[in-house]
Structures are given as structure tokens and as C-alpha cells.
Design a protein that fits this description.
By secondary structure, this protein is of the alpha/beta class. The protein contains ten helices and twelve strands. It has two domains: 147 residues, Rhodanese-like domain (Oxidized Rhodanese, domain 1, 3-Layer(aba) Sandwich); 119 residues, Rhodanese-like domain (Oxidized Rhodanese, domain 1), CATH 3.40.250.10. 29% of the residues lie in helices and 13% in strands.
Length: 284
């Protein structure tokens, strides 16, 4: 494998290009209640100049009862086009703390066919701390454009796929949830969910992949993945609570040059609420 770091860009890189044509800056912030931050309020008052807001609670499958479910192709195309983003743009995605919810939107753009998509290292917090300009006036109204979306289904794993993967071991399972939720020492935030993990899964918390909101080095990432018991020469599927932070592992794998990985969009919400799925507790 050859490392592929082009997907990660620095604040300096973005600042030098902030006013160039066909550059779309996307605030993909989304927070758990325990984090004590309001993504909509933060965007309304402080943002990177020219950024638009991607609402991960709204741009979803309207017919699914799963949180953050992958939107149908036509829904994604319509909603993203309304934000003024084209599939041919250079797209830079960020969130508040730097490496939490932004990888999910980076992954969404790629799964729907955008080729030139990047993640801002360190997110908005680092952008502001470094001294780059912050926009505090009301967000500008976007000029709608066309986003030609084409779903790459090969990047997805369904519930049926996951049942087969658990049974056959054909893919390694990398779980991005906090270790305590993985072992069932800490309860799930949703009351109707069982605690624990899928049989054979490996724990790789998203919080371990970054330091201060900045993605760790290629060597550090490789060591973390291998220490988790994951073989980078073999296929992988990523999962988490509701499909958001699983994309953080997907991003790290892409940076490491690993190509054969899928994301289980339903993740633990879907798996743990089925009547016929096995759940394991404790250390693997």
C-alpha cells in the first residue's frame, strides 16, 4: 500500500485558495448531546468565509427510521445542488473539533461521485485558533447548481451483507464507537439498543485517530490499526453507532492507501435492534 494524504488539507492550503472559483467549503458539524455544542447555532454565528452548512440530520433517506440513513441519489443531488455545490467542484469539508462528523460528509460526497473532496485538518477550531478569518455576518444565500450524483454501491455494506460478514469472516469489522460502548461497560445513548459489539469486530475508536482534532501521522495510524488486530492487506468494513464516525475509519484507511473497505450505513443502531443478530460483550 502507498499512503494517500491528498485528501487531508491544512488551514494554510485552504486560506490560499479560499476565493478561487469552483471551490466549495462545507461545514459538516454534528454533535452528540453530551458534547454540549449546537452545530446550527455555531454555523449561524461563526464559520469559515463562504462556507455552506450540510445538515446531517436532514439530508438523509426520508423513508428510513434509521438516523443518518444514506439519502437516495436524487435527494442528495437536489439538496447538495441547492447548496451551490457541483460534483466537479473542489470540495473541502470541515467540522468544529476537526475529526468527528466531517469524514461522514467527505465519504458521502465520494460515494455519490465527487472526485476532488478533501478534509480540513483540525477543523474550524484549529482554523480559528491559527488566526485565519472567520465570517460572523449572516450566511450568504447559495446559488443553486447541478450536482450529478451517481451512487457507488461498492462502498456500502447492508444489513444482509453484515450478517454474512459476521458468519463468514470475509471482511474484518472495524468499530469506531468508544471502547466502553464496544465492550458494553458503557450503555448505548439510545434506550432501545443492546450494548456490545458484533462477533469478531475490532475496536478502533475514532477518538484514537486524531490528536487535538488533527489526524495522526501515517505511521501512527498504521500502528493503531494493526494494534487493533486489523490486517491492512485484507478487506475491511467500518461501523459505528449510526454511520457517522465509521467514516472516520474509512478516511484513515484511505489515507493509509487501503482501498478495499466498505461502510455499514445502518451500523449499531440497525444491528443491535434486530431479533436475529448476535451481540458480544466484554473484550474481544
Amino acid at each position: 500500500m502507498t499512503a494517500n494524504t491528498q485528501h487531508l488539507v491544512s488551514p494554510q492550503w485552504l486560506a490560499e485558495r479560499i476565493s478561487t472559483p469552483n471551490l466549495s467549503v462545507v461545514d459538516a458539524s454534528w454533535y452528540l448531546p453530551a458534547m454540549g455544542r449546537d452545530h446550527a447555532d455555531e454555523f449561524a454565528t461563526r464559520r469559515i468565509p463562504g462556507a455552506v452548512f450540510f445538515d446531517q440530520d436532514r439530508i438523509v433517506d426520508p423513508h428510513s427510521n434509521l438516523p443518518h440513513a444514506l439519502p437516495p441519489t436524487e435527494v442528495f443531488a437536489r439538496e447538495v445542488g441547492a447548496l451551490g455545490i457541483s460534483d466537479t467542484d473542489t470540495i473541502v469539508v470541515y467540522d468544529g473539533p476537526g475529526f468527528f462528523s466531517a469524514p461522514r460528509v467527505w465519504w458521502l460526497f465520494r460515494v455519490f461521485g465527487a472526485k476532488n473532496v478533501h478534509l480540513l485538518d483540525g477543523g474550524f477550531d484549529n482554523w480559528e485558533k491559527t488566526g485565519f478569518p472567520v465570517e460572523t455576518t449572516a450566511p450568504a444565500t447559495s446559488s443553486p447548481t447541478a450536482f450529478n450524483a451517481h451512487l457507488d454501491a461498492a462502498r456500502l455494506a447492508s444489513l444482509a451483507d453484515m450478517k454474512r460478514i459476521v458468519e463468514t469472516g470475509e471482511r474484518q469489522i472495524a468499530d469506531a464507537r468508544p471502547r466502553g460502548r464496544f465492550t458494553a461497560e458503557v450503555p448505548e445513548p439510545r434506550a432501545d439498543m443492546r450494548s456490545g459489539h458484533m462477533p469478531g469486530a475490532h475496536s478502533l475508536p475514532i477518538s484514537s485517530l486524531a490528536d487535538g482534532g488533527k489526524l495522526k501521522s501515517v505511521n501512527e495510524l498504521q500502528e493503531l490499526v494493526e494494534t487493533a488486530g486489523i490486517d491492512l492487506s485484507k478487506p475491511i468494513v467500518t461501523t459505528c453507532g449510526s454511520g457517522v464516525t465509521a467514516a472516520g475509519i474509512s478516511f484513515a484507511l484511505t489515507v493509509l492507501g487501503h482501498a478495499d473497505h466498505k461502510l455499514f450505513d445502518g451500523s449499531w443502531v440497525e444491528w443491535s435492534t434486530q431479533d436475529d443478530t448476535a451481540v458480544v460483550t466484554g473484550e474481544p
